[in-house]
Amino acid sequence: MDRVSEMLRSIGEKCTEQRKLILQALLDLARPVSADEVYEYLSPTNRVGRTTVYRTLELFEKKKLVRRITFRDGIIRYESAHLEHHHHLICLCCGKIIPLEYCPITSLEDSISKDFGFQVTEHYLEFYGYCKKCKEDKER
Question: Which of 9, 45, 86, 87 is most buried per CB count within 10 Å?
């Protein structure tokens, strides 16, 4: 069984062609993407309608197959919930989203637990600034 079908079955949903295509698009794009970006990615095949993309992403979020992310620009984006825990660096100039593959606040979670008796179950960090290219362009 392929990975996409297995992921769909794990949430108890039918493996329709549209769902498989949408989930595969999220995995292929490998970054937080909006429903419109998924639709545009799939549009050359014209096999999935825009409304289907929106509804399917909402279903995937409800079933915890994808994570919904809203950055400062207000655009709702989605990424696979099966990715390793990570954070994002977001360029204020070009909008580039760079995954930060390690968690810089693990020790903070330990302190919160120790100092407050609070069990942290999840967290997300977004760092806003300028990517290397935009920073260099700005300095010229």
Answer: 87
